[in-house]
């Protein structure tokens, strides 16, 4: 059959014509320039309804958050907030890209902050803070590291998470919580119980990086380990602290036997249920966040336990008292339709002492401003106080916002699993490989 | 053919008329237009856009031309090459095993004198189970600490491997899962086997052919087109293998979704990392969308090559038939 150029051309023209709107729809997002922030609050009190997306799911969380929003509505009766629950970061990103974001969005992870700030998914909040005279000094210094990226603050902290050591007083048999890694190892060996076949029945402590909250992001603070250099490249291979931590972990894993420890770990129930191994008495000591206090109160109220800062490297006693800090962040997406009213809500939820204390008392998260930490209305008990102290400690640290935050953590964790399982036996080579992968990825995504 | 009409001054001037051929072309175009629209919107445009984005640093919001950076990164991205090896392993092992197992089960069911309907249902049902639920169930069954398979092996005095926690056993574990849900293939093979003319078997039996010879010289040649269909679709599906690998790794790693912890894809040691899974992570976790486009183009090219090879084989079989 002879080709028919005219027909083919017509067909192509039809396709091209139909494809054009699709092409134009795929440009790089909509750019709604943020309105210039007014001083303080909304300039007029015209009734307005704003939308907010958050990730809360559990009934107690939703109730606590609704209570906080009710407090906001009392202060700002002309602003009504409608919320959407169980929202993840990728939904926020897609909505911003599609030009139909909520007025306010909340994220549970700080891993996306660099992306939020760099791409402008969330608006720069500095002008709003300046207009409202919100001072940086309201927050502990460490918070600045995970709420801004390269000098651009695009989110505010709403409650914080800190990590410490939980210990089961009955299983500890009178022993005091360890303060150094050597003490932790010795106590672990002393408290571990095995059956006649050598299988673990009770572990003093599970040193594996695969244990629920033992990810390197949380354990790195025990040795003061660094993740990145100021230029964003990897500092992991060049920092002897990581080698120290991983060697300590491997020694203890080997004492258990990797296979035995894995079999024991895989017998655990869900971390977020009443089957959590610490709450069931399967482990004597565990690293966990402050929220575990609320879960124990709810699901294992008979558990006699205590809390303490995480043990630290023997040669770094100065680190004791600190821990890993991160938290929930909240901001105003680009394209928000009621940015000024949205700022009123963000400011209320992140700086109002009563709002933060109400949320903290209900959710048992750490309030993220210094005045809220000092509030007499804040419910304090010795176990929760530990986490307030960790939050206020100058030895505490966070993972600074990085454009490849999740990739960097994944790469180090892969190396840790290889190392502790014995499937990688050259730690220097493993860490050098981590550096190479992180640096290569940085060139790919940020040109660094 | 042309008609004439009078010009303004009454001169006859030739005017091209719509020829039937041209009209037929337009009608054909009209009938083709739904396909053309679909082709343009869902194939041509995405393909061209993917090629364009593969030369950009694209984080879903901003574009920056970077030349061949994404392609150069692919060459030294060890995880991508591991994912390619894993995916090819699954194609080479899982697809033939699924075809063989599905055919074997179908063959056995055709031989049953009673209860064929029951066994057909039993073997077909797993293929109706949602992928995530099926994978969760399998990881639970094979859990070395609390799974019933480990308990049964232990009762027999046999060791139980850490199926989804040991890099050497993770892909075989996924293959077992694929064999468990072979019902979709089994039903197709069953229909093909029941279609083989009985007289061919009778003639072969008269010639003294045994069961194996009947299978090799009667059954297989007749159902070859169906086998080829199963192979082609199996290869294409396996090149896109994603959900089961992702769910098994996530559950077996014990990874939580809490803030501050990240999922390690391909757990353990990237042994279950498949190419589409790595592509997904690049695009939608790391927002390296330009690089994800490079991976997508490679997946497209490999799928095309596999499909063309298999279709050529298929055409050869049809011509023989």
Task: Pick out its properties.
heterodimer; A: about 450 residues; alpha/beta; D-Maltodextrin-Binding Protein, domain 2; two-stranded antiparallel ribbon; B: about 325 residues; mainly alpha; two-stranded antiparallel sheet; 13 helices; about 70% helix
Shape of chain A: globular
User: Which word captures the global form of chain B?
Assistant: flat
Number of strands of chain B: 4
Assembly state here? heterodimer
Kindly name the structural category of chain A.
alpha/beta
How many whole angstroms does the radius of gyration of chain B measure? 28 Å
Number of helices of chain A: 18
Largest interface: A-B, 67 and 58 residues
Low-confidence stretches of chain B: 1-10
Percent strand of chain A equals 5-15%
The secondary-structure element order of chain A is HEHEHEHHHEEEHHEEHHHEHEEHHHHHH
Element pattern of chain B in H and E: EEHEEHHHHHHHHHHHH
Structural class of chain B: mainly alpha
pLDDT average of chain B, as an integer? 89
If you average the pLDDT of chain A, what whole number results? 88
Family (chain A): Belongs to the bacterial solute-binding protein 1 family.
Keywords (chain A): Signal, Transport
Pfam families (chain A): SBP_bac_8
Protein name (chain A): Extracellular solute-binding protein
